[in-house]
TrEMBL record:
Alphabetical keyword list: Plasmid
Source superkingdom: Bacteria
Name used for this protein in its record: Uncharacterized protein
């Protein structure tokens, strides 16, 4: 599933994604293929869901594009 499809199916919501395929450019990971694992109904659950699994990532569908920046200090 592409990000545009996710945005159309789940408008203006938090979704938990399982990323299947991605491309990395200049330290930024761009997801290409994904599936929606779950809809997160409450903003308070976002952190708990994100910490529960490193392979599932929460995103809000208001964003037109998604990317993952690897921040290491």
């Amino acid at each position: 599933m592409q990000w545009d499809e996710v945005r159309n199916l789940y408008p203006n919501q938090w979704v938990l994604l399982d990323i299947y395929a991605k491309v990395e450019r200049d330290g930024v990971i761009i997801p290409l293929d994904m599936k929606v694992v779950n809809v997160i109904p409450n903003d308070g659950l976002i952190v708990r869901k994100a910490r529960g699994s490193l392979s599932y990532l929460p995103y809000h569908t208001k964003h037109k594009h998604i990317s993952i920046r690897n921040i290491v200090k």
